[in-house]
What we know:
Keywords: Membrane, Transmembrane, Transmembrane helix. The protein is mostly helical.
Amino acid sequence: MASSWRRTLGNVRSFIGNSMGGLRGGSNLASWVVAGSLAYFLWVKPSQDLKREQQERAALAAASDPYRYVEKRKPIPDPQDAGLIYGNKNRTNKTEE
Length: 97
């Protein structure tokens, strides 16, 4: 019984080791560092640079557009007292008179 879980654990470790190229120890770590560095410089960094460049271009375009709309004053608050009122707006409450 005890040997079956040990055998299963050994099989899992063997499978993981083989799926990572069969390398062990320092060479395995070095190969993962090289692969990670290549992936970063070939895929991640260019996409980040492109996104940053697009944001800078958009900011420059927004700053240089003389016809863009800019709100110059605060909006006037709605004077109603008791939430939204639907229906006839001019109706007054006659019980108060």
